[in-house]
Design a protein that fits this description.
The chain has 288 residues and is of the alpha/beta class. The protein has 14 helices and eight strands. The strands form two sheets. Strands 2-1-3-4 form a four-stranded parallel beta sheet, with helices on both faces. Strands 6-5-7-8 form a four-stranded parallel beta sheet, with helices on both faces.
Length: 288
């Protein structure tokens, strides 16, 4: 049974109980032991990094140091948290001067960053530690060829040498459920979530372009692994309907929701009713 430090971050427990519930259920199905971390703080993504770099390094190094004390890798369901933890892990591992500065601060709490554990995204742990073949064995209600467009999110893909997350991970995780991956031209484009606070019009345009590209490419559903991206693509559909009269009707499902359904879980277990754009149509594609 693989054991992990579970770093929830702020957004998922505050806004996405459906993500948390589906993730926990999926983890249980594969005997992944997720141990909630205690005494940790917000990762500060993306704002803290912009105005207090050493503070951003320290809060994330502190989380990593707590995980090192516990002796298990960190997994997180949030792209922003994953990106922050990965960035700090990579930077401090290769920068002795900053590592000394940060550890001097952490010493006050008897903590030290040593780079002995790795921060990981929950879906990456599913892919690498459980594996596609093991997941396939437990799929009892495959999604019969339904077309799903993937929005990976910026923080899991960039920079590639730091995140070490490949798009193929999520592609294969979608296909093992029986669904098909709908390719669309602007799959690498940002959804605009983090742009909204500084340029609302641009943030909306980015989401609109993305939704239009997905719809025109034949997608019936969208999947995400990031709460901020999920919120943006979900919420903007409601706004675009009101402002532009455009209806995309693309339910946004968090990946553990999709996998959970394919594993035979019911809609309540994966929190399907909490999605803003009604996600119940996915149930029509379940077979077996």
């Amino acid at each position: 049974m693989p054991v992990y430090n579970l770093y929830m971050g702020c957004s998922v427990p505050a806004n996405y109980p459906n993500y948390e519930a589906a993730m926990i259920k999926v983890a249980e199905a594969f005997d992944m032991q997720l141990e909630y971390m205690e005494g940790v703080s917000c990762c500060g993504s993306p704002n803290l990094r912009a105005f207090d770099y050493i503070g951003w390094l320290t809060v994330n190094a502190r989380t990593l140091a707590i995980a090192e004390k516990n002796g298990h890798d960190i997994v997180t369901p949030c792209n922003g948290c994953f990106g922050s933890l990965k960035d700090v892990y990579h930077f401090l591992k290769h920068n002795t001067d900053y590592r000394k500065k940060v550890n001097a601060i952490l010493k006050k709490e008897s903590l030290e960053f040593k780079a002995t554990i790795t921060p990981r995204h929950f879906v990456e742990a599913l892919y690498t530690d459980i594996g596609i073949e093991e997941i396939k064995k437990k799929v009892t209600k495959p999604l019969d060829g339904v077309g799903i467009a993937i929005h990976y999110g910026c923080h899991v893909l960039r920079p590639a040498d730091v995140t070490e997350f490949k798009p193929e991970y999520l592609d294969e995780l979608i296909r093992v459920t029986g669904a098909s991956v709908v390719e669309y031209p602007i799959w690498k484009q940002c959804c605009g979530a983090t742009v909204l606070p500084v340029d609302e019009n641009l943030g909306i345009r980015l989401a609109r372009d993305k939704l239009k590209s997905m719809k025109e490419s034949g997608a019936e559903f969208i999947t995400v692994v990031c709460p901020a991206c999920g919120n943006q693509l979900d919420l903007q559909q409601l706004g675009l309907k009101e402002s532009y009269g455009e209806e995309y009707n693309l339910p946004v499902l968090l990946y553990p929701q999709i996998l959970g359904l394919a594993l035979g879980m019911d809609e309540e277990e994966v929190g399907l009713g909490m999605n803003r754009v009604p996600a119940a149509p996915i149930l029509d594609h379940l077979t077996g």
